[in-house]
Amino acid sequence: MKFMFGKRWLSIFAILLLTLSNCSPTIGYALENMSESTSSSVISSAEETVSKSETTTEMSQSSEEIVEMKQAEENTETNRSDAPSSSQDLADNSEESVQKILHYEDEYVTADLNAYFGNGVENFSVTLPRMKNSGKWDSEREYVNQLSQYLVNQNLQPADVQQIEISDSQIVKEGYKPRLTVNFKTSLGLRGGLVTKENLRLVSTNTDGSLVFHDAEFHFDTTGTLIGLTYEGILGKDIHVVMVKPLAEKTTVTLGQYVQMQLDGYVLEEEEEQTASNVPLNARLKVKIFRSDASGIFTILSPIDSFREEKTFDVLSTWKPSFNLLGIESEKFDIVKMNYRQAHQSKTDSLMYFNGEFPVASFHQESGEEESNVLEIYLQNRMLEGTSMILGLRTRMLGYRSFSGFRSVTNATVSNSSVDQAHITQSKRIDYLGDGGNNPDTSVDDRIGTDTHELYRMYLDMTGTKEPFDTLIVVDRSTSMTDPMNSVDTQARYLAVYKALNGTAGRQGLLSKLVGFHPENQVAIVGFQGYPGYPSGDQDSTVIANWGRSTSVALSNIQPPYNNGTNYTAGLRTAGVVLDQNQSSRKKVMIFISDGVPTFAFVNGVRYGNGTISGNNPYYTRDWTLNYFNSWIGKYPKLPIYTLGISSEFGNSDNLSANPYVLNHMSSQTGGFYSHVADSQALERTLQKIVDDTKLSLVSINDQLSQYVSYYAEQPDVKVVQTNRQTGQVTTLYQNGAVTSQGVGILQSVTHTAVNASDSTGKVDLNFVDNFKIDDTYTYTISYNVKVTDRAYEEKRTSGYNAHGDSGTDYTGNSTSSGQAGFRSNKVASLTYIRNEQPYEKEYDHPVVQVDTRQFTLQKSDSKETNLLLENVRFELRLSDKKTVFASGETDSKGNITFTDLRRAKTYYLYETKAKDGYTLPEDPWTVDVAVDGTITIRDQLGYTVSKSGEQYRVVNHKLYQLPSTGGYGPAVYILLGVMVITLASYLFYEKRKQIA
To answer: Same structural domain for residues 560 and 661?
Structure first.
């Protein structure tokens, strides 16, 4: 036999084939189409072997080129659908966009914007507003209030906020994140302490009004001064640099040797005097100290020219539209009087009491004027103890008792006592929108073909309760109570009080309302006067009715005796005795009614005063009464006092005899309110208001979402409703992104704030108007849509569910939460409310969500013997990039392998990575398509649908000698070919030896 190669060459060729079989399975791709007869035939000559080998190589190379071309086409399609990663990418894929760096510079800043723009765009500017007109100030005030609401939930507050305006922000092409760098030529003037990266935030506003906090880079020079910032993200009309500080319940300020003040926690104290160059957006509070060295008695009516201006402190500011003065004291001086003037106003008000809430105006005005709000404090050198007639504030700090209109929920704690838990009832429920049902509060599940399998709707509701309370009514029985209410309403004042307490035909009285409000409520009544004939004052007060549930009082007990003055302290002394007799745990309320100023007062148990309003008697008795009250109220720190002045002259004169100064002081110190009542109708309205004031005040509902759900911004359908618990009538308070006409006066705002945190995606806040009262009449509910996140899918696949839904967390007709495994929908959800001037926070239960995934089982068998099931065959399920491994595993003894947690509307690729010994290894994957409706379709390498047998998709493997027409062989071809060549070489060698022999 003639052969063109020697035995050595045949051996080398065989070894080469065996080597290639272990390192390059792709070379033999074309050989997979060989028939079984060809693969098993005997090679008759070396020339034929070489020819086949050369042909195989050419086919392999051609096949590789086809694969590479196909992959290149896929990559091109991917690049077309993805956002460009560079300017070159953008230039290749879009003729309408180009990456540019626009530069802007003025006297305050330089700025560079790196972004993708449409053709012809060159305009861009970044400016620091140096002045605020009234319209812009109102917008900024609203913005800061929204920001404050968000920060307060992190126990933070804005110390300073500086705005950076951006013009032509819409020029940035949608879908590409711009990068903005701003450098400051002059200081931003951030105030509130040391500026560090830790206490700075960069915030912008979404188109829906929600806040976006950016992960910005802040740049500082060697001295620690902020000189610039850089961030990537959305460009709005402006961004804000926010200096934050811990939120405090109150701010204590010491002004030199003069006074110490307690103000609400939103008042900020600077370390140094403020300067106009700082240009803050907040309001400034300047305190001026006036002092007199003269001896004698000074009062709030003393002329100001008796005092000299001694010192000014300009270190206070606030972001709120008002500030609260909670108390003031001086260790060295007597506080004589205080005046207050709002910025840009000409009128100066003389304060009737040294605490309360005061409106403020911003430092800047549209006209260019710059002015602070001014608080004037007038001091006198301390007089000897016991001889001072000055207001008794010099030795006792007025503690914080939550003044009307001031909210402070900073340090609210969640009480676990049964009494506290009874204040209010609330629930959180969830409805799965992918179950085919029709939720009545959203239209997202109404459209045919809409994919809702990842959507849920959250419901948070609350209902107030009526709590029992006992009321002590203290009534003035001085002779002036026989005077008419006014020139029109001529009935006697005491008679108007009597009718208001008892009621009239067809009109319920206060006593009936009080005991009818709750079955446990009790009422007591004390009367007071000042009888000149008994200097000891032991006849100046009496108990008209002790604690009980009586709905009427005798007229004779209300009618004043003849020729009596007014002794507030006598009424307070007896009121204390009656209060001490009531040992119940119920809330206590006191109503104090008078038609005049005190004309008698107890000092160290001795009655002083002459019972008249002539001369200096009103001044002396006022100060004595205030001193007595300040000492008396310390025993009843939780007693709100509501004071009523039922004289038409009260408050209409600068004369102290008609000034309700003491009544104002008594109510403001205790969380009640003073009301001037000029007629009987106003008296009844005021008494009804007092009843309403005993109800709970609702502040807010806050839902901080977990990392497993996000606010469905595409269609949140946020809705707030009020449901009458008796009639079932539902009233919509908020819908379509706005408060409805029915919601005005109830709701303040509904906001969503996105956050980028490891344990939360954002929060939804429902804020009620200040001092909004609730009872058990209505239930208030907020609902909105959420979507499960990628984090939920990933954790379900790797770790499984980590929680179970709390009981009662399913919406009507839903069954996915209560007791079910899943992920919590919220990190924490809470309700904030005020009871007895004390803030409370109560947490909601936790619903859970699940991810709706699919799974399939693959069964591997022999291509000929289908009952021969192949185990230990390894597979990898990869994502759409064909590289990232989603899951992997090997077939079991029955040839089965199951892949779980596949997401809808996704495509996966199934690779066989290890064949069973003796079987070929396909190189191309199977395609696994999961449709939106969850249907799974598997296609083989030629695009044919893989049939399903029962619950399994059946795929086959071919033995090495079977050489099927489809599928890959791996190294089997080369092993077989190498063995054949070696056999042939051995045969030729044997024949050659025979010839030689």
So the answer is: yes
Helix (H, G, I), strand (E, B) or coil at 717: coil
CA distance 65 to 530: 113
> Cβ of 427: how many Cβ atoms within 10 Å?
17
Which tens digits make up the pLDDT trace of 757-795?
Answer: 889 999 999 999 987 888 888 999 999 999 999 999 999
Show Cβ contacts of residue 342 under 8 Å, excluding neighbours closer than 6 positions.
358, 359, 360, 361, 373
87, pLDDT greater than 90: no
**CA dist., res. 286 & res. 278, Å (int):** 16
- Identify the domain containing residue 901 by its residue range: 853-957
Q: Who's near 255: CB < 8 A, 6+ residues apart?
A: 261, 287, 289, 311, 313
pLDDT in tens, 114-125: 877 665 556 778
**What CA–CA distances, in Å, run from 657 to 485, 619, 620, 623, 891?**
17, 9, 12, 13, 99
| Block residue for tokens 């026989």 | 482
Q: Residue 443: what are its φ and ψ, rounded to 5°?
A: -100, 5
Question: Please, are residues 342 and 359 in contact by the beta-carbon 8 Å criterion?
Answer: yes
- The answer to whether 747 touches 734, Cβ cutoff 8 Å, is yes
Axis crossing angle, helix 493-502 with helix 680-693, rounded to the nearest 10: 40
Mean pLDDT score across all residues of the chain: 79
* In the predicted structure, residue 377 carries a pLDDT above the cut 90: yes
Residue 966 placed within a domain: no
- For residue 92, is it within any domain? no
E strand or H helix that includes residue 79: helix 46-81
Tokens coding 874: 């390894």
407-422 residue pLDDT tens: 233 333 334 333 344 5
What mean pLDDT do residues 496-507 have? 87
Are 300 and 351 within one domain? yes
Straight-line distance from the first to the last Cα atom of the chain, in angstroms, rounded to the nearest whole number: 15
Please indicate, yes or no, whether residues 565 and 678 belong to a single structural domain of this protein.
yes
Contact status, residue 737 vs residue 208, Cβ threshold 8 Å = yes
Is the Cα dihedral 95, 96, 100, 105 positive or negative?
positive
Contacts of 52 (CB under 8 A, 6+ apart): 43
Q: H/E element holding 73?
A: helix 46-81
pLDDT given at position 213 = 84
**pLDDT tens-place string over residues 953-994:** 988 887 765 444 444 455 555 566 776 777 787 777 777 776
Q: What is the pLDDT of residue 32?
A: 38
Please give the pLDDT value at position 37: 37
**Residue 493, CB half-sphere, CA atoms under 13 Å: how many?**
26
| Gyration radius of the chain over CA positions | 42
- Note whether residue 394 is domain-resident: no
Q: Is residue 700 located within the same domain as residue 835?
A: yes
Percent helix / strand / coil, the chain, rounded to 5: 20, 35, 40
Closest CA relative to residue 316, chosen from 387, 258, 267:
267
Q: How far apart are CA 524 and CA 540, in angstroms?
A: 18
> What is the 8-class DSSP label of residue 918?
T
Strands 156-167 and 109-118: unpaired
With vertex at residue 144, the alpha carbon angle to CA 141 and CA 150, rounded to the nearest 5 degrees, is: 145
Last residue in a domain, options 230, 245, 260: 245
Residues 708 and 634 in one domain: no
